[in-house]
Design goal:
The chain is mainly alpha-helical. It is 57% helix and 0% strand.
Length: 161
């Protein structure tokens, strides 16, 4: 892992964020921005609404072949919080909870952006926490404890509990 000065780190992350701001391809299976055209009615768009955060999360958990217990432990969540996410399909998790789940499931950057979008969140280029989490995802550094050490060092915040 290469070491960057804090200034160089933020500059690199802003550059990567700028490069990532392009329209999503049609067949990616990822959440697409809501763009209504004159050809498609609002009713048609609403009838074809995408998969919810809850459903996508548990689909990703199934694909990862992890037990729910492994996921909540790797995300640094407690059992009760994860149970609330699991039982309440309309539960709206905090942004840091979704980012912790992205780390626990070892999602790539596009999958992470998609899961965040399904929970009505997005990575912000002006948030130190978001930049640090994106960098960890890009570098495939999925150890939540090590990530939390880095987050605490720069922001006094952590993911999970």
């Amino acid at each position: 892992m290469r070491v960057l000065s804090e200034e160089a780190f933020y500059e690199e992350m802003l550059q990567r964020e700028a490069e990532d701001n392009y329209p999503l391809e049609e067949d990616t299976g990822l959440a697409e921005p809501c763009m209504l055209s004159a050809d498609i009615s609002l009713e048609d768009k609403l009838a074809n609404i995408g998969v919810s955060f809850h459903d996508k999360l548990f689909e990703l958990i199934d694909e990862s072949h992890l037990d729910n217990k492994d996921v909540w432990k790797r995300a640094n969540l407690d059992r009760k919080h994860f149970s609330k996410i699991q039982c309440d399909q309309n539960y709206h998790p905090k942004k840091k909870t979704v980012m912790a789940l992205c780390i626990a499931l070892k999602l790539d950057l596009e999958q992470s952006k998609d899961l965040l979008a399904r929970a009505d969140w997005a990575f912000s280029p002006s948030s130190k926490v978001d930049l640090i989490v994106q960098k960890a995802i890009i570098d495939k550094q999925y150890d939540i404890m090590q990530l939390n050490v880095t987050l605490f060092k720069y922001t006094n915040e952590i993911l999970g509990v």
